[in-house]
Amino acid sequence: MKKIVIATNNKGKYSEIKNILKSVHGLSQVEFLSLKDFPSIPPVEEDGKTMQENSIKKAVTVSKLTNLITLADDTGLEVKALNGQPGVYSARFAGPGCTYNDNNKKLIEMMKDVPEEQRAAKFICVITIAKPSGDYYLMEGALRGIITTHEQGKNGFGYDPIFLVPQFNKTLAELDFDTKNKSSHRYKAINKSKKILVELINKF
Question: Which of 33, 95, 174, 184 gets the highest tally of CB atoms within 10 A of its CB?
Answer without folding.
Answer: 184
